[in-house]
Specification:
The protein has 466 residues and is of the alpha/beta class. The chain has 20 helices and 9 strands. Strand 2, helix 9 and strand 3 form a beta-alpha-beta unit. Helix 1 crosses helix 19. It is globular, with a radius of gyration of 23 Å. The mean pLDDT is 97.
Length: 466
């Protein structure tokens, strides 16, 4: 029987072990999409205890605790940090088959040097050991990032953001990684939601210009793209419910915009036409600037209205949706391509039923201007585990060029999540190593080593232009 999480954890054959330890393990991390707080990075306040780092904002762990019957008081409620940590340990001890079990032990080992097995019986000793490390090292955001071999971090930022935190982080120089903004205009796209009018007012304040038409909104957003570009931005991100596409005239677009601003109810068809036109306008500017556009599809958000009212968004009440995305996505990308404005694009699906949809869709719009110009993005959110990662890479290998894959991202709010890059790299090396061991690919380490190191680091470095 193999030892629990030894040095060759998840590496099931000799080829996998060699690929990971010699070609992947020590390469820097490019975290091109995350939700870390620039404010926290700048202020760099030391953490007080393990709960603040382990459970603060980590909805993966919150969902598991709820599934185990832990009362909300010990998750997001007023229980003490020590009580919350012990409640988490008590249920994690039984998390067989859940990636949280691996993630948590990797976090404890890599950042705290703690090799105890998490359970109700060890909660007290882990609490004491971890907090001692935190106190002695004055553990803070910068120390966690700097110890994780991170080369680049791209946060997620609204177009109205002044990006002052990013400029101050750069000037302060306490974080070794380059910290760049990423442009996320979801509030401007979601014209059908009751947040739209208030957001337009926010964008007016940020730009100092009146937004009294759809054409003016496009102009202001493009100005904000340029502003982000001046501050080092190389990537945008869009959370799409499905894959919107509908053709609308300029007159219709202006009419829909006025309707929304006057408090009218925008139909699903009108929202689709508005979103597809605005996305195309933004994509053209992204292409001109050499940016990467990310499209995240397939989430069903804020399902529990009672808990959304109590805790807000991104607190663990989202799930996988089952949209039909193929035709809309095809038309959306094609419209951008016809207008000469299809940028480098990464497509993500939350529903693995769409793996082959995206795996084949990317082949329709590739270009010699950039290897792997259109990417099938890393297994996202609920798929961010061994089976999800393996199936995504197998689909990409079957249908396209796995060797050009830009690899893993954290998509996380936790400063401990860089261990997930290790998790991904081990899984990736094991998958490729297994093909070699099975006689399905030659054991040529000149080629294999390049494939593995490219997926781990170099493809992303070259693709984003960092």
């Amino acid at each position: 029987m193999k030892e629990f999480m030894d040095d060759d954890f998840m590496l099931m054959n000799d080829t996998a072990k060699k690929l990971y330890h010699e070609y992947s393990e020590k390469l820097p991390i490019i975290d091109y999409h995350c939700h870390l707080s620039p404010k926290m990075m700048l202020e760099d306040e030391p953490f007080e205890n393990i709960t603040q780092i382990f459970l603060g904002g980590d909805h993966y762990k919150w969902r598991y605790m709820r599934s185990c019957g832990v009362d909300e008081e010990y998750i997001t409620g007023s229980a003490s940090d020590e009580e919350k940590f012990k409640a988490f340990c008590g249920c994690l001890g039984y998390a067989v088959g859940n990636p949280l079990y691996h993630w948590t032990h990797l976090e404890l080992r890599r950042y705290f040097g703690i090799y105890d097995i998490v359970s109700e019986d060890t909660a007290d000793i882990i609490w004491e050991k971890a907090n001692k490390v935190i106190k002695e090292t004055k553990m803070c955001p910068s120390s966690l990032i700097n110890s994780s071999n991170v080369a680049v971090i791209c946060t997620t930022d609204d177009p109205a953001d002044d990006l002052e935190y990013h400029r101050e982080i750069k000037a302060k120089g306490h974080i070794k990684a380059d910290v760049y903004p990423a442009f996320r205009p979801d509030f401007a796209l979601n014209i059908e939601k009751d947040t739209f009018v208030a957001y337009i007012n926010t964008l007016e304040a940020a730009s100092g210009k009146k937004i009294d038409s759809y054409a003016k909104l496009v102009e202001i957003l493009l100005d904000r793209v340029d502003f982000f570009n001046e501050n080092g931005c190389r990537v945008s991100d869009h959370a799409l419910d499905g894959a919107p596409y509908r053709e609308m005239s300029e007159e219709e677009l202006e009419s829909v915009f006025r309707k929304a601003m006057n408090g009218g109810q925008v139909t699903a068809e009108e929202a689709e036409g508005y979103k597809s036109d605005l996305l195309a306008a933004l994509a053209k500017r992204y292409h001109e600037l050499g940016w990467v556009m990310q499209l995240h599809m397939g989430a069903l958000r804020n399902n529990n209205a009672r808990m959304f009212a109590k805790l807000g968004a991104d607190t663990g009440f989202d799930s996988v949706n089952d949209y039909a995305i193929a035709e809309g996505l095809s038309k959306l990308l094609n419209s951008m391509d016809e207008k000469g404005g299809l940028p480098k694009t990464i497509l993500y699906t939350l529903n693995p039923k769409d793996n082959y949809t995206l795996g084949t869709m990317i082949g329709n719009f590739q270009s010699s201007e950039t290897p792997g110009k259109i990417q099938f993005g890393s297994a996202w959110w609920f798929n961010d585990q061994r089976d999800g990662m393996t199936e995504q890479m197998k689909a990409l290998a079957n249908l396209g060029a796995l060797c050009k894959f830009v690899g893993m991202l954290t998509d996380s709010r936790s400063f401990l999540s860089y261990t997930r890059h290790e998790y991904f790299r081990r899984i990736m090396c094991n998958l490729i190593g297994t093909w070699v061991e099975n006689g399905e690919f030659p054991q040529d380490y000149k080629i294999l080593g390049k494939i593995v190191s490219d997926i781990s680091y170099y493809n992303a470095k070259n693709y984003f232009g960092f």
